[in-house]
Amino acid sequence: MESAFRSVLAEWLRADTALSGMVNAIEEEGPVAASPPSLSIVASAAADRSHKTGAGREVRLALELIDRSDQPSATAAIADRIEQRIATLGPAQHGFRVVATQFLRSRVERRERAMRAVLLEYRFILIATE
Question: Which domains, from first to last, does the chain contain?
């Protein structure tokens, strides 16, 4: 379920025309070869959340936005759009249902060569439907 969910989330983010217009690449695996700004899923972990009648997983994942901008507000606008898009992910997916989406934390840091990185961490609870 974790791998399928990562693919679903990456496709959901790519399908947003506003977000796609703000970044050069949205990838399931990081680091991204495209020039900044770019977004990728950089880590995930899953734990069992099965119940009496079916299988389930708790998936925690981290997305990393890399930007090269002198304007922190521009990077913040992209991060806000990512959060908005994730919040609208539909529960019914092929093979599983997303029953909970929770923002956990974010971290922003400056890197060398005027790069800025934003790490967004989420928790999702998935229940198998097939």
Answer: 2-128 (3.30.2000.30)
Could you give the maximum distance between any two Cα atoms of the chain, in Å? 52
What pLDDT digit, counting tens, does each position of 46-61 carry? 999 999 989 999 999 9
- Which pTM was predicted? 0.91
Lateral strand order in the sheet of 96-111 = 25-27, 38-48, 56-68, 115-128, 96-111, 92-93
The answer to whether residues 90 and 31 touch, using CB atoms and an 8 Å cutoff, is no
In the DSSP assignment, the letter for residue 54 is B
What are the Cα distances from residue 18, in Å, to 5, 77, 80, 119?
22, 11, 12, 20
